[in-house]
Write a structure and sequence with these properties.
Blueprint: E1 10-15, H1 27-43, E2 60-67, H2 73-88, E3 93-100, H3 105-114, E4 122-126, H4 130-135, H5 143-147, H6 157-162, E5 164-165, E6 168-169, E7 172-177, E8 179-184, H7 185-191, H8 199-212, H9 226-235, E9 241-244, E10 247-250, H10 255-265, H11 275-278, H12 283-291, E11 297-301, H13 305-309, E12 317-320, E13 336-342, H14 349-360, H15 362-372, H16 379-388, H17 393-402, H18 411-417, H19 420-429, H20 435-453
Parallel strand pairs: 2-3, 2-4
Antiparallel strand pairs: 1-3, 4-13, 5-6, 7-13, 8-11, 8-12, 9-10
Length: about 450
């Protein structure tokens, strides 16, 4: 395969060592997008899957594709160090690292699945992509390798789930990302407020702030902010879907789920975040509103820290876990993040697995946290990271309380692309549909995607 476009950046390392050690329209347009995504899911799977590995060479060149970050230099420096150590320990081995844009990953990786001769051996991928890539036949089953890896026992459960499909492991977690509640300490101090300890108190605090500070959102929320809304659904006992065997069925229209949907959509309105301004907002827009001083609270990720530090809120904010439905509880957060996997067609399988372990190992994850703020997937490494950088502590507490994940099925890509959940939220906050009607419509669309995915 030849990459469409130029090679963005890359480094090559040669080793002479002896031994090695062993990843985020409404109405008819949204439905059209969902339908197209579902059709693409079934029709655009590689016409020629990678098949089995072509031998298992112990020398030669390994190719790695990683995602390019906005500021990629710190990430590249950590990767360079890890790869250099790897090649020193492997005689006759070289490693080429190429950084690809996240936006074009789907096309490039699908093309790689179709052309194993020029495909990479190791790839970085978003954890919601796992099931689709497994369906496409692109990722190697590394269940036994993962189980035999001593460091893997310290990976948190959410991270493990992100690389697991039908009980088999198809990679190693690289980092995890979760969201918590950012709030303005100066505004809270001036109004005599405390950080909210339940979702009911969160809503009341938001209303109070907006009443006292009319030019400021109490809690900025977004109608297109799926992963900001889901903690409200999960905290109230709801779920997106239930699994029976390999089949998923939507349960977003059940009473507990609708209670959570109502809790989130109830934050929209002239009392806090007017739909005319907030219905179209996504996660980035809500964080930008907080960072620029337009909101007293926002639901942001550990990965939002740098943006807030660069805004007007710098020095005037703190972070606590997003409260749950019960006082003192923590709402389950979506466990986002990225993984590394070995391609099924790699002709260097053993080496590729070893390199995957090096790049996702405890030392590398600790250094990526220091360089990029990426939360480690190992519980012990994460605790130590929080001691070094206190800003991470609320996110670590959130993960420790129990994070959640989306259905592990290729259908999720179609549901996400079809804007099923944002459409549901926007219909409710605009008054076009009731919670019951919007949730029922969303469930029908989700079930259509589940059926199409098989």
């Amino acid at each position: 395969m030849t990459l469409s476009g130029r090679r963005l950046s890359g480094r090559r390392f040669s080793g002479r060592g002896l031994s090695g050690r062993g990843l985020s329209g409404r109405g008819f347009s949204a439905w059209a997008a969902l339908t197209a995504a579902v059709l693409a899911l079934t029709a655009c799977a590689p016409s020629t899957s990678v098949g089995g590995a072509r031998g298992d060479d112990s020398t030669g060149r390994l190719r790695v594709w990683l995602f390019r970050e906005v500021d990629n230099k710190p990430k590249a420096a950590v990767v360079d160090k890890a790869v250099a150590a790897f090649t020193r320990e492997h005689r006759g081995v070289s490693v080429d690292v190429t950084y690809i844009p996240v936006e074009t990953r789907a096309q490039r990786i699908k093309a790689a699945f179709n052309d194993p001769a020029s495909a990479p051996d190791v790839i970085e991928y978003g954890n919601t992509d796992t099931a689709g890539y497994v369906r496409d036949g692109g990722l190697a089953d590394v269940t036994a390798d993962f189980a035999a890896w001593p460091e893997a026992k310290d990976a948190d459960p959410a991270a493990r789930r992100s690389v697991t499909v039908d009980g088999k492991v198809y990679g190693a977690p690289l980092f995890v990302g979760v969201r918590a509640l950012y709030y303005r300490t100066d505004v809270f101090r001036e109004l005599g407020l405390r950080p909210p300890r339940s979702q009911a108190e969160l809503a009341g605090t938001a209303r109070r702030i907006h009443r006292e500070r009319p030019g400021m959102y109490g809690l900025v929320v977004g109608g297109a902010y799926t992963y900001g809304a889901l903690p409200f659904l999960w905290a109230n006992g709801g779920a997106l879907a239930q699994q029976k065997g390999r089949k998923y069925t939507a349960v977003i229209d059940r009473e507990d789920a609708k209670k959570g949907i109502a809790a989130y959509t109830g934050l929209f309105g002239d009392h806090n975040c007017p739909p005319a301004k907030c219905a179209q907002m996504g996660g980035n827009a809500t964080v930008e509103a907080f960072a620029s001083g337009k909101a007293a609270m926002a639901i942001g990720g550990d990965f939002s820290h740098r943006a807030v530090e660069n805004g007007k809120a710098r020095g005037k904010y703190a972070v606590v876990p997003l409260p749950g439905a019960e006082e003192g509880s923590i709402a389950p957060a979506f466990a986002g993040g990225n993984n590394l996997g070995v391609l099924k067609g790699s002709s260097h399988r053993t080496l590729a697995v070893a390199l995957m372990r090096t790049l996702t190992g405890k030392r590398t994850q600790s250094e990526l946290f220091d360089a990029m703020g990426f939360l480690p997937t190992y519980t012990d490494v994460r605790r130590e990271a929080a001691r070094r950088q206190p800003f991470a502590e609320p996110f670590v507490k959130t993960l420790a309380a129990g994070a959640a994940f989306v259905p592990v099925t290729p259908a999720w890509a179609a549901i996400d692309a079809g804007q099923v959940l944002p459409t549901m939220l926007q219909e409710i906050v605009s008054g076009r549909r009731s919670v019951d009607a919007a949730a029922s419509a969303a469930a029908r669309k989700m079930n259509a995607a589940f059926r199409a995915a098989g």
